[in-house]
Amino acid sequence: MSKRLFTALALLIVASMALVACGGAPTTPAPVGGDGGDGGDGGDGGAAGFVCTDAIGCLDIAPDEPVHVAYMLTISGATAFLGEDSVGGIEIAIDDRGGELLGHAIQLTGEDSGCSPEGGQTAATIVASDPTIVGVVGTNCSSSATAAMSTVMGAGLVMISPSNTAPALTLEGETWQEGYFRACHTDLFQGAVAAEFAYNELGAMTAATIHDGSPYADQLQAVFSDRFAELGGTITFQGAVNVGDTDMRTILTSVAADSPDILYFPIFEPEGPFIVQQSGEIEGLADTILMGADGLLVDSFPENAGANAVGMYLSGPFVSGASYDDFLSKWEAKYGGVPPSGFHAFAYDGTNILLDAVEAVAVQDADGTLHVGRQALRDAMAATDGYQGLTGTLSCGTKEFAAGTSHGDCATGSALGIFEITDAEVTGGNWPPEAIFTPGG
Predict the structure, then answer these.
(1) List of residues 6+ apart from 366 with CB closer than 8 A
(2) Could you tell me if residue 177 is left (phi over 0), alpha (psi between -120 and 50 degrees) or otherwise beta?
(3) 36 pLDDT tier (thresholds 50, 70, 90)
(4) Domains in the chain, ordered, with CATH?
(5) Is the peptide bond before 139 cis (omega within 30 degrees of 0)?
(6) pLDDT per residue over 228-269, tens digit each?
C-alpha cells in the first residue's frame, strides 16, 4: 500500500469516528412512565436502557407478557361464598378496564387460601414463588392473612384484602408488615358500631360473646366488649367454640346463666347456624337477642339457621349509590342473581387501587416493555388518598386509633350497617336483608 493511500484511509476513519461522536448513530428511545425504581427520570435512553435502582427490585414485563395479578381467597369448603363474592368483584374491575393495562392484557390467577392458617401459608408459598406476579388480592379470612403475611411480604409483593377485618393485621407492632393493605373496614370500626347499636338502639345493658378462636372472631368480639363496657354496659360472658363443633348447648348454657340482653357471636357457618338453632332449647335465653357479624352475612345463613333466626341482627358491610347499582347490574349480567356475601365491592375497589398504583409507577419502554419497582408500588399504594370507590372515599396512609397506629387501612368504616333477618330471608329466599341502621344514619 502506498504512503499516500494509507494517509487517505486514515483520514476517512478519523472523520467517521467524529460523525458518530456528534450523534450520527441511531439511539434507543427513552422509556416513558412512572419512576419504576430508577430514580424517577425514566432512564437515559442510551444503549444501557432501563436500570433498576428500586430498594427491593423490579418486575420486568415484556411487550407480549401480561400484567399478572393473583388472588389468594377461600374458594372451597364452608366459606367458599366469600371467595366467590370477591372473585366476582376482581373480575368486574378488570372488565371495566377492558381487560388490559398500559397495552398489556391483565392475567388473573388464584390460589385457595381457605379460611385457616394452613391454607394461608400454602397459598402464600405458591404465590411468593412466582416472580411474574405484580400484586395479590387477598385473603378473605384474617387467620389466612396472619399466616401468609411474612411469606408474601418477604417476596416483595403487595397484598390488598377485600375482607380481612382483624385489627392486628394493620396495627404497628402487631401482625402488620409493609406491603399489606385492606380495602375493607377494620373491626375497630365494626365492633364499635355493633356495640353502639346494641346499647343505644336496642337498649341492651348486658351482653355475652362467643368466638371461634380465629383472629377475626376473637378480636371482633373483644372490640365489641370493650366498647359496650365503655358505654356503660356489662359483659356477662366471653367464651369460645371450636371450628367444627356441632353441639353448642354447653356453651349456650353457660351464657344463659346470666340471661344477657344480647349475645354477639361473630363466627362463620356452619357453627353460627348451630348456635341460632340450639339457643331456642336453652332456658334463660328466651329473651336474649341474637346478633352475628359479617362472617354470617351470606345468603345461605338464614335458611341454614332456621326459624330462630327471625328477628336477629347481623353487623357487616353496607354499600349503596348509583355506582354500586351499576356494579350490581354488571354482576347480574355476568354471573346471574346477586352477590352471595358483602365484600365484592371491597374486592372491586382493592383491585382498582392495586392497578392504579401499577399504572402510576410503571416505566414503559418504546417497545412496550414495563418495569415496575416493587418498593415504588408499595409506596404508591400507601400514598392512595381520596380514591372514590364503590365503598366510599378511601385513603391508605397511616391512621391513628386508640389501639395504636395503623398502616394500610384504606377504608373509613362508613360502609357498615346493621341488618335484621326476617321471615322473608328465612323462608322466602330474599337476599340481602334490609339494613336498618348505619353509622350516622
Answers:
(1) 28, 29, 30, 31
(2) beta
(3) low
(4) 59-184+343-410 (3.40.50.2300), 188-298 (3.40.50.2300)
(5) yes
(6) 999 999 999 999 999 999 999 999 999 999 999 999 999 999
